[in-house]
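ingest -> validate -> predict -> emit
validate: passed (alphabet ok, no gaps, 256 aa)
predict: started
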Amino acid sequence: MSGDERSPIPAHSTEAFSRMVRANGKAVGFLGFVIDLTTRMDKTYDQITIALQKLGDDISDQGDRESVQNHLVRFSWYNRKVLYENTANNFLTYVAELFEEIINRHPEILNSNEKISYREIMQFSRYSDLRDYIVEKKIMDLTHQGVDDLRTEILSRYNFDLFPKKNIRKRIAKILERRNLLVHAYGKVNRRYQDRTGDHSCSVGERIRLERPMRMVGFLSRVAYDIDGRARKKFRLKRSKLPYSEIITVGAWLDD
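emit:
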């Protein structure tokens, strides 16, 4: 199964996947709330206007009023930006938390030739705290890499392929590089982005064009669901039953 294929609605997942679903649900729900609010505000204004006209009030001096929905359309790129960033960040957090679960389940994975300084060791009086620090440091190192480097390291160290299919890797890389532009460059395309993604649909200095956010939510949900199932099986991770509300939510995204 790949991130572009339809997936069965899951009943179980890791805790990491469940947290990602909840976080994405809140991000999508907030955008839906904003859209609903603008519609209600326009309807309320129109109702008040009609009521005042019936009472004989002269409202001609109010001038032309731009609807709240028009404002929403005018700022649509920024609405997409917020959901795009949140969803991409939630996916990265999912990957980090998944591998934290894996390492906690199989601490022997940490055995390697990597070194830790004496100064770092002396910060902790208990071995468990030192171990937690090493795990956190390792996870941070992993998730701050590019997609190809991240895949290569996890494949070589844990014998687990995050993104087996090339088309999935390319799309993930583009999503995360766009996320970096939004966070660090006001969403303006630079040569680094073009070199890393091969995407020249926008010129350097031009604001990046964002795909429909819900399409991205669906894609990343399918990718995460695929990773989650394979990781649970390979590393014998604890399964948690998804609440009904999360099953319905992720089911809609997986079928998007």
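The first helix runs from residue 15 to 54.
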